[in-house]
Design brief:
Shape: elongated
Order of helices and strands: EEEEEEEE
Number of strands: 8
Distance between the termini: 9 Å
Strand order of the largest sheet: 1-2-7-4
Structural class: mainly beta
């Protein structure tokens, strides 16, 4: 079943960083996600990321109506940067595990 969700993310590039804003606008479901990246000329920016980070990604857990910011930092501003990612998203307190990108 493919169901609309109320979890949103926005990506902004500012001052050599990609900022990801995640918002859970669900009324009663907690959003949980694990992001893993393959990075070229980028690194996970733990200083500008709220919550749990790993060397290659983020772990996100957002209660209803919460938001969080994560960041990737470009190492060399004169070189191209790329990222490929995979993620596993689920809702807690829902009837079943649901992927946002199915």
């Amino acid at each position: 079943m493919n169901e609309a969700t109320k979890v949103f993310f926005f990506i902004y590039f500012f001052n050599e960083r990609y900022y990801w804003l995640f918002e859970n606008m669900e009324d009663d479901r907690t959003f949980k996600s694990v992001y893993e990246f393959k990075l070229e000329n980028l690194k996970v920016d733990s200083a500008n990321s709220e919550g749990e980070v790993t060397p290659t990604g983020w772990k996100i857990k957002l209660a209803p109506k919460e938001s969080v910011v994560k960041a990737l930092h470009r190492l060399d501003p004169t070189s191209e940067s790329k990222y490929k990612g995979s993620w596993n998203n689920q809702f807690i307190n829902g009837a079943e595990k649901k992927s946002l990108f199915a």
